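--- STAGE predict ---
source: upstream dedup step, 1 unique chain passed
mode: sequence only
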Amino acid sequence: MRRLPSARCLPGLYSCLSLAWMSILCQSLSATDWPAYLNGNDRAGYTSADLPANLQLGWVHHSQAKPELAWSGPRTAPIEGHVMLHRVDFDASMQVVIDGKRAYFG
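--- STAGE serialize ---
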């Protein structure tokens, strides 16, 4: 007689199935998608997709709220005895992620 797997094995089975499903979904991303900040983990901001010679404006979106800084600027108070100068500007522009026909920004 065949035994059914115990309930202790099911979480591992679900994890394996989830991992397999995620790998299938990741392979289905097209080359023209922009799925992460600056396109990928290398942050190159480049895609190999070809663009037409004469581009035309397809749509415009005006946000209801103006952009807000996510990070405050340099502090005047010393941190652990050191004066920290402003080193990195994270909020120079709205960052865009594109997937299919949707654009996410903010």
